[in-house]
Amino acid sequence: MALAGLGQAEDAGKADVAETESIAIARTMAERSYTKMNIRTQVLFDLIRTRRSYGLPDIVPIAVPEEHVRLMLEAANWAPSHGLTEPWRFTVFAGDARAELGERFAEAYRLITPSEKYDPKAEEAQRKRSLGASVWISVGMLRTGNDKMPEWEDLASVAIAVQHIHLTAHSLGYAGKWVSGEIVRHDRVRELIGLQPPSRLLGFFFLGWPANGAAPQSQRSPIEDKVSWRR
To answer: Tens digits of per-residue pLDDT, 179-204?
Structure first.
């Protein structure tokens, strides 16, 4: 009985040592992970915090390498999607193809502008608008009319996909902006893209090089003003 008790005590002691070693290993791994997480988090946070929307006058329309645009679109493809609907649809306009897009912008302007407010200079500005950025990416949301998710969920997914494009563009040194005015969402523009209702054209993300080294200024009110905690 005494020998049996001694053996049990030895086993318990070994178990305690093993548990202590496991805790030490887990703590070391956690510390390493925390250090790595801090570095990654800081990089991500800096990209989020310094991202800006640039107007066309602040962009130089020098060609953007296609592989960079593909990288942005691949980032967009990893946006969260409830029900795995993956509703984002993109069409890329670059080079000479931008001129056709400009013609649709000009046509949309004519169609939505009352005759008493029509200005031929404004129409021409819309025609040239597409040449002001290196790349225009249409932002489409695919809907079939027999969708398993409500529209607002797909809208949210597409919006996050565009944010992924913007953050990736920013990380590569590019300037861009998501525009969603009436002209760029007009049916004549949507028809050029090839989206059929109930699918929707939600605008365009245009892309180019910053015209100068200074990013547009921005600020946010404190997050504390927008959050309530319940514990």
So the answer is: 999 999 999 999 999 999 999 999 99
Q: What is the DSSP string of 47-72?
A: HHHH--B--GGGEE-----HHHHHHH
Residue 227 lies in a domain: no
- What's residue 52's pLDDT? 93
199 and 141 Cβ atoms separated by less than 8 Å:
yes
Q: Can you tell me the distance from the alpha carbon of 213 to that of 206, in angstroms, rounded to the nearest whole number? A: 19
Does residue 31 register a pLDDT over 50? yes
- Give the chain's domain count: 2
- One domain for residues 11 and 35: yes
- Boundaries of domain holding 19: 1-50
Domain identity same for 29 and 94: no
Number of residues that make up the chain? 231
How far apart, in whole angstroms, are the C-alpha atoms of residue 104 and residue 118? 16
Is it the case that residue 29 has pLDDT exceeding 80?
A: no
